Amino acid sequence: MKASVEWLKEYSDINIDTVKLGDILTMTGSKVETIEQKGNEIKNVVVGKILQIKKHQDSDHLVITQVDLGNEKVQIVTGANNIKEGDIVPIAKDGSSLPGGIKIKKGLLRGAESCGMMCSVGELGLDVLDYPGQIENGIMILDSKLEKELGKDIVEVLELKEDIIDFEITPNRPDCLSIEGLGREVAASIRKRV
Q1: Cβ atoms of 43 and 96 closer than 8 Å
Q2: Fewer CB atoms near the end CB (10 Å): N or C, the chain?
Q3: Regarding beta strands 63-68 and 43-55, do their DSSP bridges make them parallel or antiparallel, or are they unpaired?
Q4: Integer CA distances (angstroms), 86 to 37, 91, 158, in order
Q5: Number of compact structural domains in the chain
Q6: 141 and 63: one domain?
Q7: d(CA 40, CA 97)
Q8: Does residue 112 sit within a domain?
Q9: What is the residue range of 6's domain?
Q10: Quick check: 14 and 188 in contact, CB under 8 A?
Q11: What angle do CA 57, 59, 65 make, to 5 degrees?
Q12: From residue 94, how far is each of 28, 102, 167 by CA, in Å?
């Protein structure tokens, strides 16, 4: 049975690392199968606003964009055709990491400097079904209300950080077949009140 640590926090004051929590639960008899930590692979990706788009002089399909990251402005070259000036988008800055071990570095695309990459839903490791209105093969266009979040970490802004513990529930523990039951078990294991 899978349980989000956020759900379990509703039943006990969990203030320890999820991996350590998994070890404690295993030692107290609640077998932890796996721990999945979503959002940990996304590093140095921030909210940005497209200020300007102009055609790349040496390419038919590339454009050069100027993007505001709150405390800095960067130039990004992209082949995306679903963006327009004023759009709020996720920006993987130079030195960022994406799910699957992808590293983003500053470079030249057809002679134009590109200081990062605009990200799609898939490149962030997200499911397009969880984000209505997004397209599979295009840049993720964020809500315009997020303009006040320019430069902030996309993991925090979109609340992508989630730790999920997968428990093996044995036949003698029917009390752990609900989130409430697991929450009580966690509280007892870490010696906190429910």
Answers
A1: yes
A2: C
A3: antiparallel
A4: 33, 14, 19
A5: 2
A6: yes
A7: 10
A8: yes
A9: 2-38+161-189
A10: no
A11: 65
A12: 44, 12, 38
